[in-house]
Amino acid sequence: MTQILNIIGGGMAGSEAAWQAANAGLQVIMHEMRPKVETFAHRTGHLGEMVCSNSFRSDDHEQNAVGLLHWEMLQADGLIMKTAYKHRLPAGGALAVDRDPFAQSVTAALTAHPNIRIVYDEVTTLPDDGHWIIATGPLTSGALADAIKAETGAEALAFFDAIAPIVYHDSIDMDVAWMQSRYDKGATEAERTAYLNCPMTKDQYEAFIDALLAADKTAFKEGETAGYFDGCLPIEVMAERGRETLRFGPMKPVGLTNAHQPDQKPYAVVQLRRDNALGTLFNIVGFQTKMKYAAQKSVFKMIPGLQDAEFARLGGIHRNTFLNAPTLLDDQMRLRSRPNIRFAGQITGVEGYVESAAMGLLAGRMAVAELTGRALPPVPNTTAMGALVTHITGGADAKTFQPMNVNFGLFPPLEGVKSGRRGRKERYKAYTDRAKIDWSAWLEQMLLDAA
User: Fold this and answer.
1) In terms of DSSP bridges, do strands 116-119 and 27-31 run parallel, antiparallel, or are they unpaired?
2) Was 13 annotated as part of a binding site?
3) pLDDT, tens digit (0-9, with 9 covering 90-100), for 360-380
């Protein structure tokens, strides 16, 4: 094939789109502005760099929609998922990875591919010709974001995405903290002890909440509003919603027994998850924050076990831009006003590494079908992939559109299964069984069409 596909952005979506298209025989040019042009959140010039959590969330493909999305991507030879499982760390029922080796492996795979050329430059305008996928994510450069706004005639929606802090393990007091996954979940001892837990009494929790509420926070620029995605709320914003909110959220004590004081039930628990294979770094789970650096050190050292903590990275906050996809994109993820341009990843209004990579996978395959003159069979909305793309390209209400994680609420209902909480396990298994059959059939149809 001599057709060229240009991809802007080397994050999860851009990397996956490039891999899918190149494996199908397209010549791919990836445009990545890093390290020439830096961002607030990135630390390296690697492709597929994880800038927030190091977790791809649940890998339970029978009871969890995210785990099902993992499964579907693996069946489609997804680079991001294959690489994630190669670099996984113990994390209970979650798929956490050693972030630097992961990004290095993604970069190496794409660099070595004979059909991929990587150009390190910044694209600042919307291309008039050629075939393009824009997968620039939440940190789209200002110039390109302005070009998108000018073309669409609509203000890009925005919220603020916060980064959780990372602590050096050797600075944690293990006479206070202990290792345990919630409900001892996991098939191995490493999985059952994947999380580091710091307990709090009621008095300690109340003092911590007071400090959170009083701490100095990062000020917003004039004209900006703080519209947060509910799946990634800063902890101080959660605290503002009610003093018990954190205790029923990231600091819930259920399913945990203090190894040092097994007879005393913690009032609240702060969990940390291993951030690298060496086990030298741990990130504080669910502790995204917009507190100023000095305030973070002061407040987080109030956590029992972290009183002498040293931080490899403190939390931060950055602007996260996304399109009103139901209005601007067609069902092939193309910009209606410029159908030579597709969008993929978080900029389309999906939330999370997994969802971003999944939309990159679809965008890459859609581009292959278009450039080779083949009809792409519709992605079944009974699958995790199909449910998600259907939502962002027309299933969602454009007036209230907000970033969305994959979840079973996006799937078409099943007849003959129990509703409500009591029937949830049976219902979720039925969703995933149906999805696997339909996704496998879709992939098989694509192979037949390509033959």
Assistant:
1) parallel
2) yes
3) 999 999 999 999 999 889 999
